[in-house]
Structure of Efflux transporter outer membrane subunit:
Amino acid sequence: MTLILGLTTLAAGCAVGPDYVRPKIDAPVAFKEAQDWKQAQPKDDQPHGAWWEIYADAKLNTLMSQVAISNQNVLVAEANYRKSRALVDASEASYFPTVGLSASSTRSHQGSGTTTDNTGTGTGTNTGSNARGITRNNSLSATASWEPDIWGKVRRTVESNATGAEASAADLANAQLSAQAELAQDYFQLRAQDTQKKLLDDTVAAYEKSFQLTKNRYAAGVVAKADVVQADTQLKTTQAQAIDLEVQRAQYEHAIAVLIGKAPAEFSLPVAPLNTPVPVLPVAVPSELLERRPDIAAAERLVASANAQIGVATAAFFPSLTLNASGGYQSSSFSKWLTAPNQFWSLGPQIAATLFDGGARRAQVRQAEAGYDASVATYRQTVLSAFQAIEDDLVQLRVLQAETEVQKSAVAAAEEALALTLNQYKAGTVSYLNVITAQATAFGNRRSLAQLDSRRLVASVLLVRDMGGGWDAQRMDDADKHPAP
C-alpha cells in the first residue's frame, strides 16, 4: 500500500499528451489598403466597450442597450456559455473521491420446506431468527472510491473543457458584436431611407411647381400640351418612388425589432433624417486582431481544447489505479446494530489495464490528432478571413470617401445646370425636355450623395466590427473568472 501511494504521489505531476503551443500565424506588418490611414496608438480613442457611442446617436444607444438582454441569439450563446462552465465544474469533480452512504433494514422469510445440511447439498433444517423462519437484517455502510489522476487524464479533460468554456465566452462576445453591428447597419440604412424620403418629398414639391408653371404657360399658349404631359409624368413617377421607399423602411424597422427581442408589431421608430457624421477610426495593426476579435479567440481556444483531447486519448494506454474503502455495521438485531462486534470494513487498491482492444485506443488517438489538425486549419482560416474583411472595409471606406468628394461637386454642377435650364425655359429658348433632363440629373446626383453617406456609415460599422468592436482577449479571461449567473 505504501508503495502504491508513493507511486501515485510521484506520478501526480505527469500528464501524457502534448503540451499546448499556440499555432504560429504569419501576420503582415500592416494592411495593404491602410496606406492613407492613421495607425492606431495606445493613446488613440479607439472603440472600447460601447463602441457604437462613437456615432453620438442617442436613439442608437438606447436600442443597443437592449441587444444583450433581449436578443434571442445572444441569449442562446449566453446559455451555451453557462453550459460549458457547468461542464468544467463536472470534470473538476473527478479530482475528488466519490463517497456514498447507504442504510437498510430488511425482513426475509424462508419456507419451512427449505433445508440445509453441513454437506452443502441444500437440504436440512432452517436456522432462522425465529420459529416462523423470518430473518431480520439491518445494515449501515459507507463507501469511498478514488482514482488518482496519475497519467493526467482528468487534468487534460479539465483543460479541454476549460478552454472550450473560454471559446464559448468568446462566442458569446461574438454573438453580441454581430447583433450590435447588424443593428447599427439596419439603423443607419433605415435613417438613409428617411433621408431619401425627405429628398423625394422635396423633389415632388419642386416638380409640382414645375408642373403648375407648365400648365400656366400652356394656358397662355406659350408651350404645347406635350410639355404638360411630360411634367405630369415626371411628377407621378417621383411620387411613386417616394411611396416605394416605405417597403424598405418597414423591413429595416422589422429587422431592428427582432434584433432587440421584440415582435415587429410592438416596435416603431419615428422618421428622422440621417445626419450622423462618419467617425474617424484609427486602424489596428494586423497582429492585434489576434487579441481583438472574439471569433479568432474562440477558434484559438478550440485548438487548445483539441490539443488536450490528444492527452485524454493517450491516457487510455496506461493502467488505472482505484482506491476503494467501505465500512459500516450489520446486524440482525436492531438494539445491537451499531455495536463494535457488528462492525465491518474493507480497504484496498485496484489496478486495471486493457491488454488488447483491437486498435481502438490507437484509433482514438489518431482521431484526436486529426481533430487538432482540423482546428488549427480552422483557426488559421479564421485569421485569414479577418485580414480579408479588414482589407475590404478599408478599401471600401477609402473609395467611398473619394467618391463622395466627387459626388458633391457633381451635385453642385447639376444644381447650377438646373437653374440655368429653368431660366432658359422661362425665356422660351429651350424645350421642357431640357428641364426634365436637368431636373432628373440633379435629383439623381442628390440621391447618390445621400446613398453614399449611408454606405460610408455602414462601411464604418463593418470596420469596427471586423476590428473586434470594443472586445479584447482580456475580457474573455475576465468572463471565465467571473462566469455569468
